[in-house]
Amino acid sequence: MKAFGFLSFGHYADVPGSATRTAGDMLHQMIDLTVGADELGVNGAYTRVHHFARQAASPMPLLAAMAAKTERIEVGTGVIDMRYENPLQFAEEAAALDLIARGRIALGVSRGSPEPALRGWEAFGYVGSEDPRGADLARDKFDLFLEAIDGAAVVQGDPKQVGEGRYLPIEPQSETLRDHIWWGSGSRATAEETGRKGLNLMSSTLLTEATGDEFHRLQREQIDQYRAAYKAAGHTGTPRVSVSRSVFPIVSDMDRAYFGLRSEDSDDQIGIIDGYRSTFGKTYAAEPDVLVRQLLADEAVMAADTLMLTVPTQLGVAFCVHILESFAKYVAPELGWKPNWEGPVEGSYGRGSS
Predict the structure, then answer these.
(1) Mean pLDDT of 124-133
(2) Which one of 14, 57, 283, 328 has the lowest number of neighbouring Cβ atoms within 10 Å?
(3) Which residues contact 207 (CB under 8 A, 6 or more apart)?
(4) Residue 242 pLDDT
């Protein structure tokens, strides 16, 4: 592990105890939390994307504001649901964001997770999927998105304006954008495909597989197979890998009140999500010295270059900054962390590869 960031689900609800009552609260607090994290040396600020729910949805305005208010921290998503996106508009927005942020972005994209709406992407106008989960639609759109950000001519030009037989690319273009696209992979098979495409790998706290092996080892296999596929495909870059975990250092009475019950040994969980038997990673909540030992033993955390910490944003900006500061001060240095003022995060090409 070289870097860590935080991942917000963007929940908001007018309920007792929540500091995030409205969508406006959520958006402004996410910007404030990103500014606070940037000052601590945290490497990344990432938001989940869900539609038809009281959570963060269209991320581009938020990410642009986060980038404009900060200096060093990477901003991104985990993940954008491609079923709901217009691939050419998304390509334009992603290029603009990359230019605004001067390359400090990490856009996680995938088919998307289960949504409260039934085939909600059809309400956005995207029909024709033969897969009840919309995977075929997401895949075709993503392929077109990649072509567009690579500068391919995607539309015939008006001959009265550009001459006969000319095709046009989207604008703007960003030369660095392709390096900042991640695929959110939930299985070893999709991780291998991500490697073959030469993309970065974003792996979550769940895998849509259950082999009986511990989650962190199953995820480490996923990372190894991704890197092997990347190399076998002939790519020569330095691909990045991120994993996410729920990690809470207990350094105060308030921490103990919120997370003390989780400080007892927790285990991986097996469950069904979107029809798949899946493995869910455990929560880490303990005193810093215990967390260091636990995370050093987490094979996937140590094989990845970036660890995303899921943070309870409903508890407010100040408390989430406290969590990040505690991790940065007492835990991260023992895991190999390099603060954001030491430069952009680099991939770990070959490390952990088979």
Answers:
(1) 94
(2) 14
(3) 186, 187, 215, 218, 219, 222, 278, 279
(4) 97
